[in-house]
């Protein structure tokens, strides 16, 4: 039986082969599409920790994605204008350094996830979904009404931020950077799943009462997972903003939160590389079918319906089931 890790390796290797083909064929647009897959898959990995491991169906994860994007946009815009950011008595210099921007995005997203989680995790089920959606809409409309950073029109960054030793304007080098971060997040998730905390979180997801009976605190476990999830998604948001050199309130939209859920459902909820498979399928459909019709989401909806009804394990689940059947 071909194990799931070989399928995961094939997925990641396939993405690299596509980029290699595009690089040798001088197709920078294809490299940019692959970079988008890597970044959105990274955001999906973040949500997969909360959803796949913790059972938390969040319809507001775009909050952390948008916070990461705006952290990049605000810091880079102040570096661009040579004007420091003043927050009361605190004066912060702008920066074009990716590592500093990533750190800021991750810390800001983590703090937001902690505060949102403290409120949202007091509920469960559909109420949790609606509260996370409400937070997403609050941030969305706040960004629209924030004229200092573009308001509804968004904020443009004219030059991509820098990383030591790399030319980030080169599509292949920027892809390599995003792909390396995706691999790091996947490695973290793999270790997280089998660590004592991950096993305790999984137990709390399956049976909160039993977990509590043996001394575990399900709410605390879910809150920590929610914060970790927000941190990873915030990093993806900063990368996405750097890819486009643009941030806008749409990064907070509930549609984006829904897309992240779609990535995981298509690839396989709880599967390590489920977000990679789902993001690749989504971007491929958007690219190929989007050129044929502006209503390409109809076909996506049909595919999603088929996966939910006939393949609840997602695309990776289909592959592993076929291998099991052959054995």
From TrEMBL:
- Principal location class: membrane
Residue ranges crossing the lipid bilayer per the database entry: 7-23, 29-50, 62-80, 100-119, 126-149, 172-192, 223-241, 261-285, 297-319
Q: Which GO terms describe its molecular function?
A: branched-chain amino acid transmembrane transporter activity
Annotated membrane topology is:
Multi-pass membrane protein
According to UniProt, the name of this protein is Branched-chain amino acid ABC transporter permease
Q: Which UniProt keywords apply?
A: Cell membrane, Membrane, Transmembrane, Transmembrane helix
Q: Which branch of life, at top level? A: Bacteria
Q: Name one GO cellular component term.
A: plasma membrane
């Amino acid at each position: 039986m071909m194990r799931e890790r070989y399928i995961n390796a094939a997925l990641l290797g396939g993405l690299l082969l596509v980029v290699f083909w595009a690089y040798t064929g001088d197709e920078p647009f294809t490299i940019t599409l692959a970079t988008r897959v890597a970044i959105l898959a990274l955001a999906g990995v973040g949500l997969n920790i909360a959803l796949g491991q913790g059972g938390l169906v969040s319809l507001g994860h775009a909050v952390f994605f948008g916070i990461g994007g705006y952290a990049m946009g605000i810091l880079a815009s102040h570096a661009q204008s040579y004007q420091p950011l003043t927050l009361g008595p605190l004066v912060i210099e702008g920066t074009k350094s990716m590592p500093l921007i990533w750190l800021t995005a991750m810390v800001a997203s983590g703090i937001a996830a902690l505060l949102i989680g403290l409120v949202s995790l007091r509920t469960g089920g559909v109420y949790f979904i609606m509260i996370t959606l409400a937070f997403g809409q609050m941030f969305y409309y706040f960004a629209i009404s924030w004229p200092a950073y573009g308001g509804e029109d968004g904020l443009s960054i004219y030059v991509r931020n820098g990383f030591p030793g790399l030319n980030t304007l080169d599509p292949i080098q920027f892809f390599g950077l995003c792909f390396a971060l995706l691999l790091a997040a996947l490695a973290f998730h793999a270790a997280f799943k089998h660590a004592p905390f991950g096993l305790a979180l999984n137990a709390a997801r399956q049976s909160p009462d039993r977990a509590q009976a043996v001394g575990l605190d399900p709410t605390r476990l879910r809150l920590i997972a929610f914060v970790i999830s927000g941190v990873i998604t915030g990093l993806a948001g900063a990368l996405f903003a750097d890819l486009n050199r643009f941030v806008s309130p749409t990064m907070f939209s509930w549609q984006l939160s829904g897309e992240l859920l779609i990535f995981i459902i298509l690839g396989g909820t709880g599967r390590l590389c489920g977000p990679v498979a789902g993001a690749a399928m989504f971007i491929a459909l958007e690219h190929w079918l989007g050129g044929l019709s502006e209503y390409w989401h109809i076909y996506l909806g049909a595919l999603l319906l088929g996966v939910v009804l006939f393949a609840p394990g997602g695309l990776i689940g289909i592959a592993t089931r076929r291998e099991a059947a052959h054995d």
